[in-house]
Amino acid sequence: MLSSLVKDHQQRQQVRREEQEKKRKDAIIAANNLTSALVDHLNVGVAQAYLNQKRLDAEAKQLHMNATQFAKQTTQWLQLVDNFNQSLKELGDVENWAKSMEADMRTISSALEYAYKVGQEGS
């Protein structure tokens, strides 16, 4: 009777050990599945962040190139405006010179006419 109790006890212990081993293996498999699912979920986020960062870098580079090109174009526009202003100043100078020459010519013409009239009256 005592030996049968010991045998029953050992058999129940063996069954419990097998159940515990099976549950441990199931728990390990479930933990591995959970870990894989979490890593996959995190990797998706990391991959998306990496792609976003890559896109931002490309857009920042494009923006820098556009800003540089705009600065060059603005410099060219300013140079054109300065050249135009200089040309306008030169035209103004030529106009003033022409008016001055016209006034001088009128003075000379008047002086010559006066001299001619005086010469005509004296002869």
TrEMBL record:
One Pfam family named in its UniProt record: GCN5L1
Region called Disordered, residue ranges: 1-24
Alphabetized InterPro entries for the sequence: BLOC1S1
Domain of life: Eukaryota
Family per record: Belongs to the BLOC1S1 family.
Entry protein name: Biogenesis of lysosome-related organelles complex 1 subunit 1
Underlying gene: LOC106478641
